[in-house]
Write a structure and sequence with these properties.
By secondary structure, the chain is an alpha/beta fold. The protein is about 35% helix and about 20% strand. The chain has helices at about 15-25, 30-40, 55-65, 85-95, 115-125, 135-140, 160-165, 165-175, 190-200, 210-215, 230-240, 255-265, 280-290, 300-305, 325-330, 355-365, 400-410, 440-450, and strands spanning about 45-50, 75-80, 105-110, 130, 150-155, 180-185, 205-210, 220-225, 245-250, 270-275, 295-300, 315-320, 340-350, 370, 385-390, 420-425, 430-435, 460. The protein has a seven-stranded parallel beta sheet, sandwiched between helices. Strands 10-11-9-12-13-8-14 form a seven-stranded parallel beta sheet, sandwiched between helices. Strand 12, helix 15 and strand 13 (about 340-350) form a beta-alpha-beta unit. The chain is globular and about 65 Å long. Residues about 215 have low confidence and may be disordered.
């Protein structure tokens, strides 16, 4: 039997082809080609696959294929390490399910109010839940979530969930699901902790690996020998030399993220910090600004960046050498995705040299040490981001849609050209629109003076 190459080669529920068409999926990625035939048959699966390999579509199609929307019962549960990843997975599954009428998918994560989630579950059971382990466990203990009819369980980024201390919650949740379920486990790395949990919760799983070599071939990994005091100048020098359109800089310590942002902002970069002590709304705004290119450097701690999914990320910089090989793999896997080229730059002080040596041995790579060009730390010497973000204090709850915002900015005499507008994000109570920098003041003045859908809302630049 020849291996399936296109989705039409598979015996999928025909309703799923509408969603695949809308997402532009035709040819299967390696993880989909290797895993989907077995998943459609109901087999358990352990997949070691990097971010950007097409794993969400693989498990999304598999769980939707087995769904019976006539049964108002929770039938599929997807666990993710972070709210951001859960939101992204939910959006992807909803698009895949666009041809399935009356499907109810509920996202259950921490960091947001519990009351709306309780209200949604109280109306009628969802068919699919995508959630974080902590919030799912909380709702189970409140007896508002029933897992007795779950026949598909997905653990996405399982290595990150264990790193974040969710093993106890995962075991409790799995214990509430039927033993005769289908289980899928996806992980960028495959440490002993993953082997241990998979042996306890899975039945004769198919193991699929998308080789890391494929990822490494698209990522230019470089290592730089620096003195501790030179790190800020070395980072600036690398950013100016390589000029990536968007960069994530990883720090091992939360306190260092703010210091690095201050140093980069002094030079003129549109830099923002992302760390675990931030309020959820501030975190959301940082991620919106980075995704819409009004922030060109994101300085993050590992915990805060888990689940971060930015398309076409130009470069990853390790401001500090990570503590282990798994973390390094996960960090650099955010660039060079889907066959694109990417850059991973690591700064290493003499004190961090043993860690670098250990990392190279574990990953089987050879390090060719370079000395970075140190930038002169002159104020406003760096290029700012190409766009500016405007925040509108209105959202889905006000029936606001992206088209309404576009119309308010471009309509009537004196409107801005449509190509001045970038990405638009509409949340429950707030909306964000990216505007090209040279049009930002005019767009702000127009929105503040005018109306959107006949109503005035507070608008400001962030």
């Amino acid at each position: 039997m020849t291996e399936a190459r296109e989705f039409t080669d598979l015996p999928l529920n025909p309703a799923l082809f509408q969603g695949l068409d809308s997402l532009g999926h035709v040819q299967m990625t390696p993880i989909q080609a290797q895993g989907l035939p077995a998943l459609i048959e109901g087999r358990d699966l352990i997949a070691q696959a990097p971010t950007g390999s097409g794993k969400t579509a693989a498990f999304g199609l598999a769980l939707l294929h087995r769904l019976d929307v006539a049964k108002i019962r929770l039938q599929a549960l997807v666990l993710c390490p972070t709210r951001e990843l859960a939101d992204q997975v939910s959006k992807h599954i909803r698009k895949l399910a666009s041809g399935i009428p009356n499907l109810k998918l509920t996202t259950l994560t921490g960091g947001v109010a519990l009351a709306p989630q309780l209200a949604s579950l109280g109306q009628h059971a969802p068919h699919v839940v995508v959630g974080t382990p902590g919030r799912v466990q909380e709702l189970l203990r409140k007896r508002v979530l029933d897992l007795r009819d779950v026949h598909v369980l997905v653990l996405d980024e399982a290595d990150r969930m264990l790193d974040m201390g969710f093993e106890e919650q995962i075991r409790e949740i799995v214990g509430k699901t039927p033993k005769q379920r289908q289980t899928m486990l996806f992980s960028a790395t495959y440490p002993d902790s993953i082997r241990a949990i998979s042996s306890n919760i899975m039945r004769d799983p198919l193991e699929v690996t998308v080789e890391g070599a494929e990822r490494q071939s698209t990522i230019d990994q470089r290592f730089f020998d620096v003195d501790p005091a030179q790190k800020p100048a070395a980072l600036a020098g690398l950013l100016m030399e390589y000029q990536p359109e968007s960069t994530v800089v990883f720090c091992n310590m939360r306190r260092d993220t703010e210091e690095v942002v201050s140093s980069l902002a002094h030079l003129g970069y549109s830099a923002l910090a992302l760390h675990g002590d931030m309020e959820q709304r501030d975190r959301d705004e940082v991620l919106v600004r980075f995704a819409n290119r009004s922030c060109n450097v994101l300085v993050a701690s590992d915990v805060a960046a888990r689940g971060l999914d930015i398309d076409d990320l130009g470069a990853v910089v390790n401001y500090d050498v990570p503590n282990d090989a798994d973390t390094y793999v996960h960090r650099i896997g955010r660039t060079g995705r889907a066959g694109r080229s990417g850059i991973a730059l690591t700064l290493c002080t003499p004190r961090e040299l043993p860690r670098s040596t250990q990392l190279a041995q574990e990953l089987g790579i050879s390090i060719r040490w370079e000395r970075p060009t140190l930038a002169a730390l002159r104020p406003r010497s760096a290029p700012p981001a190409t766009t500016v973000t405007l925040r509108i204090d209105a959202g889905r709850g006000d029936k606001l849609r992206p088209g309404d915002i576009v119309g308010a900015i471009t309509g009537d005499a004196g409107g801005l050209p449509a190509d001045a507008i970038g990405k638009i994000d509409v949340f429950a109570t707030r909306s964000y629109v990216a505007i090209k920098r040279n049009h930002a003041e005019k767009a702000l003045a127009r929105l503040q003076a005018g109306k959107i859908k006949g109503r005035k809302f507070r608008v400001r630049r962030i």
